[in-house]
Structure formats: C-alpha cells, structure tokens
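Customer ticket, subject: "Can you confirm the structure for NADPH-dependent glutamate synthase beta chain and related oxidoreductases?"

Message body: Hello, I'm evaluating your service for our small team and ran a test protein. I'd like someone to confirm that this is what the system normally returns, since I don't have a reference to compare against.
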Amino acid sequence: MPITMNRGAFAHAGSSLAFKTGTWRSAKPVHVHATAPCHGACPAGEDQQAWLALLQEGKPQKAWEQLVTTNPLPAITGRVCPHPCESACNRGHLDQPIAIHGIERWLGDEAIRNNWSYPRRSGEIRAERVAIVGAGPAGLSAAYHLTQRKYNVVLFDSLPEPGGLLRSAIPPTRLPRAVIDAEIGRLLRTGIEFRPRTALGRDVTLDELRSEFDAVFLGVGAGKSRHWDVDGAVPADLHEGLALLREWLAVGALPKPNAVVIHGGGNTAVDLARVMRRAGIRDVHVVTASGLPGPDTDADDVLNVVPRELEQAIEEGVQFHPHRTINRLIMRGSKVVGVEMVRLKKLPDGSGRKSRVSFEGTETVLHVDMVVPAIGEVVDATGLEYILRQRDFLPVDMFGRIEGQPGLFAGGDARDRLKAYPNGTVSAAIGDGRRAAEAIDALLSRRDPVEENRPPLPYASLNLSYYESSPRIDLPTLPLEQRNDSAEIEGGPNSAQAMAEAQRCFSCGNCLACDNCWTLCPDNAVLKTSEMAKDGSHYLFDYEYCKGCGLCAKECPCGFISMQAEE
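Agent reply: Thanks for trying us out. I re-ran your input and got the following:
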C-alpha cells in the first residue's frame, strides 16, 4: 500500500511490506546440511543421524532401509565394530555418547527376524559383468552395492562358505555363527552368484578374470603372517596368532602351556588371549607397543581393539603390558622359558613424525613357556605376483583403483592404508567395497566417481538449551562365571531401549522441524511451506525483509542454520 500524508502531517496506516528491510543486513542466514560427527567418523560411511531420525519417527524398517543403503551387514557390524562413531558423538560432550552400535545391532537383528527385504534400486539389468575375489566383508559389500546398481556379479572365494575372517577369525562369543549365516545368506539372495572353493592362482588366474569380466575387485584379505623373530631367535614350536585362532575355530584345538605371551595389540591378540584364558591357561600376557585407554595415552597410540572387548579381557584375567616390546627371548635349547620386555615411548624422530624408542634400564622378565606373535598379516602373493611386485599390500587410491591397472580394484585388509580411510576393521572393509562399487560403476558408465563431502558440524554449533541430559542405555553382559567358548558375551537392547536411545540424538546438522526459526524471527522473514520436508527445505528465508539479526541461527538447536557474510 502506498504511503500518503494527511493535512496534520500524520501518515495514513500502511503496510510494513513496503519497507524491504533486507537491505540493512551485513550477513544472511542459510541452511547448511553439515556432516554429523558420527557420520564423518564411520569407516563404512553410514549416515547414522539419518537412520536415527527415522527411528525417532517410530519407523524401524525405514531406518534399517536407510542404514543398508551404505552398510548391508548391520547385525554383524553392530557386534564387532569398534564404533568410532560413538567416540565422535557430540552427545558425549553433554553426558554420554549414543549407543549407536547397540541400535545398529538391534536393527540388523530385527531385519533378520522379520525378513525385511533389502531395498532395490529401479532400472534395467546391465550387460556388464563384475568379478569379486574374496567373500569377506569388503567383497560382500562390493558385490551388494554393484548388484544394487544392476550389474551381474560373480563372487569367488577359496573357502566353502562366505564370510572370510568373519567366520574364520572372530570367535562366536563376539559374533555368533547363526548371525553370520542369516545376514550373509540374505545378502547373497539379492542376486549375487557365489562360487565357493575357487582360489585365485590355483583354480582361476587374474588374467582369466580380467579377460572374462568388465571389472575385477580384489577383496582377498591379508592372510599371510608377518615374519617374526627377536634378534634372529625363533622358538622351535612357534605358533602365529591368526593361524592359532583359525585352528581353534576350525577344530577346537589349542596348545596348553602353563604361561603364554602374546606379542601384538589388535583384535587377534586380544581374542586369542581370551580364548587361551578360558581354556585354563594360568597366565596369559599381552605385550603391546600401544597404550591402554586413559589420560596418559595419546589418541593415536591406543590399543586398536573394541574398548568393551578390552574391559572384558581384563575381567577374565588377561594381563596387559602396554608400551612394551619383547627385547630378548630366554631359551633353553630351542624352547622358550621366558621373555625380557623393555619399555617403549613415542618420541619425535627429527622428521616431524614420532617413532617408538626403547629405554635401557627398564627391562623386566616374564617366565613363560610359549610366545605367540600376533603382529599383523600381509597379502599372500599367490596369483597376484605381477600386481604386488614384492609389496605387502595392494596400492590403491580412495576408490580402490590400482594405478596402472584399469578395471582392477582392491579393498579391505589387502590394500595399503590411506590416512583418510584406515583399514583393519570390518566397517572399514565395508566402506572400501562401497567406494569401489561406486568407482566401478563410474568407470563402466564413463563418468567420474563421487564421494559425499559435507562440512563437519562442531559441538559449539549446537544450542544445548533445547536438550535435556539423559542416561545412555546399559547393554547386558554375560556374567564372568557363565562365559564359555560359544555363548555370546554381550547382548543387545530390546525394542523399547533401542527406540528410547534413538531419541537422544541431537540431529547434528539436520533440521529437527522444531519451528524455532519460524516462530522467533522478529521480522516474520522465515516462511513455512505447507508440505514438510526431511531436509528442512520447507523453511524459507525471505531475504527482502531479513535484517540478518542472526536470531534464527542462534536458536537453531542442531546447527542447521549458519550466518554467511553478504557479498
């Protein structure tokens, strides 16, 4: 309405719409769908915030369908993943992180129990064929994601059953075989052709696969133990950690020393230590160069195991010797009767990095009659000689592409470590398979591969005035006296616990549809459409009237609104 003046120099009533006050501002609000810390920390690439939001709406099947768009094995990863997502969870700054692994496990178990079908993408079946070598978590993930993209996938493995190290190296106390069978069985039924008892280099060559298929993914794992000695000394009865664990899982046999030292600091070392302790071995020691979790240990120097597994091992009587290595074997003839340990510390080495240094005068002796190295494995070169070229691992980029080998990809424990994508866990292998599937699809579709890259949301961007403190759920653990070699030690949440725990999510970086911006804007410059939208796009900023006061951004609980300087 135009503004006019009367004879008394007073303005007639008019509309504020005539005053477009947006020209006053120096900064404007914008929606920023940032990456939640849990998502950024997940090796598999899960967007936990997205599927937790669906649980908050009371839609567990939809939440599972969202989860498996990235990770097709949640009943497995919910049990064995070290869940770095929880360490990164912003909720931990307020009270306790969300029990993401427990909810993930529950969703996976619910899908098995209710036989929920994997969501399928639309589209025509493609003519291209892809070979996957290795039916471990990396190969299964690659096969699943390629099948989703409508490729013909053939999965090869040297063993009679799929699963790789899931089946051959993780004890049933952590991962029951019924869960492996159910989860992987359902995955294979999505249209993957599985060819067991087919070993690379024995039954089929890499050249044959490359000539028959349009692309090949190598998820062969790292199944060859590293060489181990102490100043050239090796006991005559040396048993290597992974081989010993595999033998126990296959036939139930274990050596029975009075006291044993396991030299290493990963899941294999801790799993084997617990198995040997339950077998009645009196003294089981783990000597590791890494430290135990605590204020005196740097984050990059902590023992690389699931924290709850470490706690349970200590409960069961396993003795840990952190920041130490074996300095000398004490032998009588060719038999070990003790080891000399020495303390280690990470110190700058002059190149900007830190390396472990031993300190003379810190030697101590353990009287043992067996030493088991569990210091990691490398790739078995059989069938891969011209690709490996004397290296321990396959050289790849972030998408698993092997340089100079078009159409050939790799992932899981077989690949070199990448700083942005560390390997060594089931979740990391699943992430490798997913990214490789994207790269294979890109190659065969003649485009560039794409990986989501949103900015991370810091804790300081949240408005905690809108959240109440609430305790994390407690997951049941089998009492010490009831633990054996077959019963699962840690339980999962029930339905009520899982749904309640999901409500604790801050929804970091994603709209909660709380209406704060809409109701609190002093200029009514936030508009709301009639339709709700998952990404907050039903809230619109009317920049003609927004003065840029920043109240909407300040009062947004989850950091979805950010103020940006005007050009």
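A couple of notes from the result: The two ends are 31 Å apart (CA to CA). The chain has a mean pLDDT of 91. Feel free to reply with more questions.
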